[in-house]
Structure of F-box domain-containing protein:
Amino acid sequence: MILEFPLDVWGLIIERGRLDIPDVLNLLRVNKQLNVLLKHNSIWYRIMYNKYLKLQLQFDIKSAKQLVRARNDGSTSQNYFQTCMWFYKKDLEYHNSIPDTNADIGMFLDRFSIDDDYLPIIYNHYHQLPQDYTEMIRKKNYRIHLSERADCLNLLQAQSFKVGIDYLSKMFNGEIDTTSASALEEFWFNISLLDRASHSLVYTRQQVLKRIFKLLHRDIRIKIFFNESIHSNVSLISVENDKDILVFKDEQALMQLIVHIFRLSMSCLEFQNPLVSIDDEVVFGKYCSSYFLEDFSLLRLYGGQVKGHPFLIMAILIKVIDEFLISNYRIRFEDSENIENLQINMTSTYLRVRNHLFSFDRKTLTLFTSFDVYTISEVVMNLRNRSYFEISKFIEPLEFKYVVECFLHLDTFMEAKSLDTIMRPDYYFTNPIVNLNSFVHHEFNTISAQAYSFLKLLCRYIQDIDSENDFLDSMFCRELERSMNYLNNHIYFNAIFHTLQNNPSKQNKVKAHFLDHPSEDWLFSENFALFEDNSKISIKKILKNYFFVKVRDPTKPLQSGTIIKHEKFETYGIVLGEVMTTNENTHYYRVYTTKKTTECYNLNSISVVDHNTKDLDKLLNFILKSCGEDVIASLFGNCLVLSESHPLLLMF
């Protein structure tokens, strides 16, 4: 009876029944007839797509796109059973190599951080692990292993970083088409992949875009077809074997449709910040005239975590207009038979659609639905006292390279001491209609500012990939070494080294500076000892040189890894070590806080968290999530030890 099921029914059984690859392989062994039936390409394509390709597509992996494109084009040359077995072999290899608590992350970075076939494998494994430690703590299991989750996180971040840095390398080498309408959105997406949070947010991009296009189809195409509501001045002419034609009554009708598309699209970019209550009055967010460094993260914008800089908003809208309107329709007006060219471009301040300019300045942390519309004549009249060159900056389309340079020229103004935020005025994004003398601030969290400075360093070196300058190469290597010895940036070394393979001369300079054993198969594990002082990349260097702390001394009041609470600020954190001072009677400690900043606290202002702390399970989960398990495992070791008689320590 079962053998008589048709192929599509077997496909539903496998997909809806959530049968994994081993389950289907067992079915192949039942008999020859079922073996032949279940080896059909359509069965294994769906298995491979759901388990591996779907996630690779979210990261814009080229090989996955090629497989899906070949499938959609009806190609029969690909054997999807063999391709899926290739993935499954790597899946088994990874799971058989999962580290124990004493394993060196370097070996796993060498094996799994460069090959993007491992990306969905690591991602799937990470989400199968327990997402918190509540049950362990409640059962008084006082030894909690962090290594498995931490290694997964580090590998995911290294894989995301590799995709982003590879894109930037190809872009600077002219291998990326920067003239397409989606080029800007693609650029900001790959910049976001260099963000530590990218692996957990990447799925939101496709979700939000699908939601936008579904909404546009339902609210615009269907209503135009039935000649409803605001679309009464628009008619649709269906054309066989060609794009349909939208006929507008006049220019104003076209702009009304563009405005409606913008509003529908931006209604899907919801800011998820919780409501703020001020004097019992509930308000949506708060006024904010500044843009934060995180506002340049496209994935955080899609995920509703930030309001988003106008450059990112405009990049999304250009992509939407191109894929929904320009790619599917031709446009003309009622009084003409000529097809109109709908051009949409970004200027230094506006989004330009034909002769209209759209201004986006999201000053409040609310649902982003408002914008201003001007004609070019209105803008020129407002700027009539400016020179032609100055006026042209506001109305002429921007080149792609200008947007890149704008982002790479943001200045963090790093200070020696730790600050919550660092601000500076920037005149690139001035809105001349509102106030000719106004400016927009950029704020930088110190951790974000370090990451941004690291990104700028890499981009400048990759951008200058063809130049030969021994002094600059030497400077880069020293700066790269300093950056590698900050938090857990060392996980990116393999990706950076392989990105430089397009320029053997520069790669050899990095090799000579960092590597004693030039084997590229075991690049990290054979050249760096993370817990030795003389290694180029070392956890001890991070603690001693960057955080200015002493080596652990058991005789001191607090040891490195002690979980503490600042009594006045009510902030939790983990002690990195004692700050070097000349006064032996005063003790100051460098603390890595749950705000992901490093602070210097006096011993008298902090208390130690121990096993008697109220709601210990919730507190520890909060600390681990806020500080980041990847960073904690790198700086303090792989095991969280809870003792009934001692403070909570993260042990080496």
